Input
Amino acid sequence: MSVTARATEITGNRLLARLPDRDRIRILQKLAPRALEVRTRLFEPGEVVDSVYFPLEGVVSLVTVLEDGGSVEVATVGNEGVVGVPAAVGGSLMVRAISQVGGRSLSMPIGAFFDELALSQPLTTLVNTYVQSLFGQISHAVACNRLHSTEERLSRWLLMSQDRVGSGQFSISQEFLGQTLGVGRDTVALAADILERAGLVTCRPGHLDIVDRSGLEEVSCECYRVFRSEQEAVAEARSRSWQPHLAV
Output
């Protein structure tokens, strides 16, 4: 891939796109493209993280895994952010990162990433702001998973995923959705059937498609609006972070 093509591709990640040109050009040399097929595992809980990932397309799910093998999603990351930021080189995270909606990403070795944090104050600010927002999403997900119905949470998941990939057509099994939402396959099937009978989605084996987004927004729990507002606030804060200040 030519330097020009790679420079264009990097803007597919909204966090990287907000870097000043000098930082973006330097960081570009340390990034490598990686396809993320559905169910690609980027790292496991407690496993040393060896790379960070900047999604260009698709959705990466951060999942808490229990001793009995059960799991539940606590956050999702799309092209607005970065996946796999430990406290230090050689560190780990207590979640599984798994590609939930297939797509593409750019990856960087963890050592190179921390080198860039030392070199680039704009990158440090962007990453810190995003990670803080991600922790907020995780905290809110605890209440969402406990208090809201499966059809509300499924609606929220579909809306957030559509925001990230720009499409309302998803190749995903109900079994995988159940693992994501922390419920059984039959529970997901029932929730999807409720949404389909309401004319909001269509379902077929291995696929779930949005047909009425506005209606889905009405059914979704309030968490979707909270998450979206938080993302917009973070993006606005980033855009103000390094606007040049001219002497008057």
